[in-house]
Structures are given as C-alpha cells and as structure tokens.
Amino acid sequence: MPIKRIYHIIDYYPDLATYFGILIISILELLIGNNLKVLIFSIFMMFFTFLIVLPTNIALKNLFKTKRPDGYRNNKISHFKGSFPSFHTQFSFGVSTAFITAIYLLSPDNIKLLATLLAIFCLEGMSVIVGYSRIVVNAHYPKDVVGGAVFGIITGFICSYTLTPILKDLIV
After folding, report:
1. Whose CA is closest to 156, among 130, 133, 123?
2. Cβ atoms 133, 36 nearer than 8 A
3. Among candidates 124, 19, 171, which has minimal Cα distance to 163?
4. Please, what is the Cα angle at 40 between 27 and 99, to 5 degrees?
5. Taking a C-beta distance cutoff of 8 angstroms, is the pair 22, 123 a contact?
6. Is 157 exposed, middle or buried (0-12, 13-18, 19+ CB in 10 A)?
7. I want to staple 42 with a disulfide (CB 3.0 to 4.6 A). Which of 5, 10, 23, 102 is the partner?
C-alpha cells in the first residue's frame, strides 16, 4: 500500500487515529503500573478538552476566514468555514496534550517520567501524523496545521492545569 494511501485513510478517519493512539497508550500505561483511576481521569480530560477545542476552532475559522487549498474535494468536505486552523490537528494535539499533562500531573513519582515519555511519544507522534496527513491530502496549508497544533497544545495545557488540581482529590 503506497504511503500516500495511508495518509488518505488517516484523512478520512483522523479522530479514529487519535483514539487508537489513546487506546495503545492506555494499555502501555497499565503495563508499566499506572493507576486505572489516573487513566480514567486522563481520558476524562481529553473529552473535556474536546468541548473547548470545538467552539474555539469554529470561532477561529470564522475570525480568519481562510480558503482551503484548491482542489480539495471541491471544498465541500468541512462543515466549518475556513481552513485556519486545522480542526483535526487542533483536536488531535488538544486531546493528546490534555491526556499527557494529566498523566504527568497524576502518575506516581516512581513511574512519572516513563509514563509521561510513553504518552508523549505515542500521542504527539500520532498527532504529527494526523497533521501531516492534512497537508498530504491537500486539505490544509502547512500554516493551518501548525496553527491547529499550537492552539490544540495551548487548549490541552489550559484544560489540564485548570481542572486537575480541582479534581485531583477524586483520583488519589
């Protein structure tokens, strides 16, 4: 299967690619001895972050009103107007960053570094692939993907650092 075909598959199922990364890292986290409550909270942080990413992305697209690259499925693929920032990239980086940050903040000290590095490698790696696929299939310009990554990472950090201290007592 040619590599470009793989990117087209990721383009059709980018959220599924992110969820697949979450499933893989959750299994790895359990294997290294991380607490199930930490993983459940980290997954909760992902979904909360999504609730912030979606309206933020819509607002940014309406603010910037940039066109998608010519030829991308006649520009009818997205329900959202505008190309900047890439929603799929913002979603992937946002939920991944929220998950990683929650893992970092809540994991036991003896596995904190390993747990965080595993999550970064698996999830941010998947996010990079999702973002790159958006460029390969001509859905977005590179600036749209970089903008989506930046806004996603910021949103993930804000959500995790805001909610984790408030809800930490429920976990530990």
Report:
1. 123
2. no
3. 171
4. 75
5. yes
6. middle
7. 102
Supply φ then ψ for residue 86, to 5 degrees. -65, 120
- Whole-angstrom distance, CA of residue 49 vs CA of residue 156: 6
Residues near 134 by beta carbon (within 8 Å), at least 6 away in sequence: 11, 14, 86, 88, 89, 140, 144, 145, 148
Q: How many residues does the chain have?
A: 172
- How would you write the pLDDT of the chain (172 residues) with one tens digit per residue? 566 566 556 656 666 677 777 778 888 888 888 888 887 888 788 888 888 988 999 888 888 888 888 766 544 555 566 788 998 899 889 988 988 888 888 888 898 899 899 889 888 888 898 888 888 878 888 999 999 999 999 999 998 888 877 776 665 5
Burial track 17-26 (b if 16+ CB lie within 10 A, e otherwise): bbeebbeebb
Query: Tokens 């991308």 sit at which residue?
Result: 72
Q: pTM for the whole thing?
A: 0.81
CA R_g for the chain: 16
CB atoms within 10 A of CB 48: 18
Both tokens of residue 138? 């001509």
CB 15, CB 91: distance < 8 Å: yes
